[in-house]
Known about the structure:
By secondary structure, this protein is an alpha/beta fold. It contains 7 helices and 9 strands; from the N terminus they run βααααβαββββαβββα.
Amino acid sequence: MGELTIVVFSGAGMSAESGIQTFRDSNGLWENYRVEDVATPAAWLRDPELVTTFYNERRQSVMQALPNDAHLEVVELEDLGNVSVITQNIDDLHERAGSSNILHLHGNIRLAKSSGPAQEKAYYPIDGWKLEKTDLCPDGHRLRPHVVWFGEDVPAYEEAARVLAGADVLIIIGTSLQVYPAAGLIHFAENAQKRYIIDPKADELDVPKNFVKINASASAGMRTVLAELKNR
Ligand SMILES: NC(=O)c1ccc[n+]([C@@H]2O[C@H](COP(=O)([O-])OP(=O)(O)OC[C@H]3O[C@@H](n4cnc5c(N)ncnc54)[C@H](O)[C@@H]3O)[C@@H](O)[C@H]2O)c1
């Protein structure tokens, strides 16, 4: 038998135990901000100051956070096979935990890119937590956060679909599966023999019947899954 291919598909709940707010839970981020004011291309055009400040605050809280047990348990999966992490998160906690293969569907808040038309594929590390008005790309356009906003394409979509199609085991962690097109990606894992969804609200989430629903936090749920996979 070949090596087991395990794909982890994570969302904001993955980082909840690190103290980073989720998106839609009560006291989630969007109780205080309207999506259209801070996370769309139109918002950037209308008020780049507000958008920059919003993401500067997010970056500061990401930099103060540490990977939690769930991130570390995802790294431990690498003892069992070939592991890919596909994350909707813009934080870098999977990286800091030590996962080897990580695909960010919605960007990485520690990076910036040009807001001009020509340079969208070049990414610039942000030194510290603050992106400033005066930070420009080599062509003189203002830098914006490397985050995929609502209404923008998801450049890593095809690659994520390909990775999911090769999954023997799929583990979904901490996502309400409401942000499209990302949420639709889970259907590419047609060949997976085992599918888990870990979320304190797993019971309420809309996934196909062949998923094992684990109603637990990311860290407790990952402990269960790790134990089960180790016993296979
Ligand atoms: N950390 C981050 O980078 C971050 C944080 C907030 C939002 N976002 C962005 O916003 C979008 C939000 O969609 P989403 O589906 O990822 O998030 P979401 O907020 O819509 O859903 C979060 C899910 O996490 C669950 N959850 C809460 N606490 C948990 C815990 N301790 N363990 C496991 N699960 C827990 C909730 O029940 C919910 O189902 C994403 O696309 C992402 O880009 C990113």
